[in-house]
Amino acid sequence: MGITWDCAQLSTPWHHPEKTLLEIASEADIEMVSACGSKTICSTCKVEVIEGLDQLEPRSPEELRIAERLKWGGNIRLGWATRF
Ligand code: FES
Fold this sequence. Notes:
single chain; about 80 residues; alpha+beta; Ubiquitin-like (UB roll); two-stranded antiparallel sheet; binds FE2/S2 (inorganic) cluster
């Protein structure tokens, strides 16, 4: 099993303890915008999770705040804040 990045049309290994989606993407040379430098200000690192949402850690209070403000569904996550 792996992570499929539809935007880049490639897959990366699934298990990445302690790493965020942004870090995993970066290591695979998948470009992900992160305009505020992971300060939960801009939301440019958002990702849509199509499958496996139950495998991710719940939203942090900071991520929850921006998700509620922007009225995101549960499958939209901040790349810098989302870990397995
Ligand atoms: S880089 Fe700004 S919230 Fe993700």
